[in-house]
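Whiteboard transcription, Tuesday session. T.W. wrote the structure tokens on the left side:
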């Protein structure tokens, strides 16, 4: 019978060495720096441990410090459940213990351009944000972490400056343009990220990220107050309805917008839609784009969640909205395409009208790009239609939205730049 007591469970808290990058330097950081080998990572861990022993009231012992020899962007850190930080702590928890305690330091080095633990590999990316981050975890028994956590919260943000030796090691090992270095807790970085998002017109993004990051049960709903964009969150995934101009103006978020404000308001809605469509996946939160409907606009969160889960998912590069087709078999004589957009949003939609030889409108369709690849695909489809009918096509670039304020619907323009609006059913 084994009577040896099992080692105590180990808890952890996280901190970060934050490197403010000098974006004015000719030595700009345009790609992820190479990962460190074990010897270099271990030396850097020693410098950080020395800093923490100096900065914290009682030092970090008997807790152990663990880090990976890499720099990360904020989108590597802020992912649902903080998998990178959890992987670091688990690495230390699995290490051999002495009298139930973790080793004083544990640094993971790379073999080639990868770590053996997938969760610790930086995400592929072309540029960093304003900060490069080197996360670490302190791991130890619960009573030790109960002391260290408030110690870090109280001392790192107030005067958490690394030593010159740490600065020199970071500069030498990663060869990056450093403007400033400082230590921070995860809570400090959360507050910084929230402020950064607010300054970049992404106030609602933190409301979506926070419950996902800390794995709070849903469903959650976020409606952007300035544009009416609606997001629903559950099970570490987000859903968002996409609205064409017509649907947005008639039963979507624009249904209460005055007729003379429709163009500006839809542009604002679409700008936010595109910003969040890029930002949410960047932070590891899957985004499902679905066809908008009146049911999704329900004030009841559970009802809106049911509606959005059952809606058709938009997985293609663009959405086609057919708003008018004349019955009969008249052959198109002209094919007119209108590129609707502005300088900020570029292309909002392509409107495609077919006309008979007497000028009668035969059909009107709107093509909305959902991804960058959709723009080229739409133009190719217009060219395919032209070849299919054996008639030439023209593409007018208006620089604005062609629409009927009275009918609250999008149109196209003819050869004389006059609006073509489909008859209402």
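and on the right, the sequence the group agreed on:
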């Amino acid at each position: 019978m084994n009577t040896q007591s099992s080692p105590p469970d180990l808890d952890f808290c996280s901190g970060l060495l934050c490197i403010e990058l000098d974006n004015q330097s000719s030595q700009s950081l345009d790609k992820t720096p190479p990962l460190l080998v074990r010897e270099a990572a271990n030396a850097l861990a020693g410098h950080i441990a020395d800093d923490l022993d100096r900065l914290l009231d009682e030092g970090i012992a008997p807790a152990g410090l663990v880090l990976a020899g890499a720099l990360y962007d904020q989108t590597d850190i802020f992912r649902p459940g903080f998998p990178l930080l959890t992987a670091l702590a688990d690495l230390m928890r699995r290490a051999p213990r002495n009298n139930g305690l973790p080793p004083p330091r544990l640094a993971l080095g790379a073999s080639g351009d990868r770590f053996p633990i997938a969760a610790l590999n930086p995400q592929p990316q072309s540029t960093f944000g304003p900060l490069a981050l080197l996360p670490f975890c302190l791991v130890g028994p619960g009573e030790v972490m109960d002391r260290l956590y408030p110690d870090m919260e109280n001392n790192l943000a107030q005067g958490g400056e690394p030593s010159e030796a740490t600065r020199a090691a970071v500069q030498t090992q990663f060869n990056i343009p450093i403007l400033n270095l400082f230590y921070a807790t995860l809570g400090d970085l959360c507050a910084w990220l929230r402020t950064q998002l607010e300054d970049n017109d992404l106030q609602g993004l933190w409301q979506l990220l926070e419950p996902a990051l800390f794995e709070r049960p849903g469903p959650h709903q976020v409606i952007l107050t300035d544009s009416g964009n609606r997001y629903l969150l559950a099970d570490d995934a987000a859903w968002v309805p996409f609205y064409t101009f017509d649907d947005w103006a008639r039963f979507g978020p624009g249904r209460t917008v005055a007729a003379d404000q429709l163009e500006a308001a839809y542009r604002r809605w679409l700008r936010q839609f595109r910003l969040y469509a890029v930002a949410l996946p960047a932070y590891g939160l899957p985004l499902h784009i679905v066809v908008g409907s009146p049911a999704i606009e329900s004030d009841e969160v559970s009802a809106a969640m049911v509606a959005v889960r059952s809606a058709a998912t938009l997985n293609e590069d663009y959405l086609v909205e057919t708003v008018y087709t004349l019955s009969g078999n008249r052959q198109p004589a002209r094919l007119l395409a209108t590129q609707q957009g502005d300088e900020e949003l570029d292309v909002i939609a392509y409107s495609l009208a077919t006309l008979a030889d007497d000028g009668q409108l035969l059909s009107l369709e709107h093509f909305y790009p959902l991804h960058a690849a959709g723009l080229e695909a739409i133009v190719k489809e217009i060219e395919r239609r032209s070849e299919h009918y054996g008639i030439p096509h023209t593409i007018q670039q208006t620089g604005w939205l062609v629409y009927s304020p009275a009918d609250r619907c999008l149109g196209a323009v003819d050869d004389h730049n006059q609006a073509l609006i489909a008859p209402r059913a």
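Someone added at the bottom: The radius of gyration is 28 Å.
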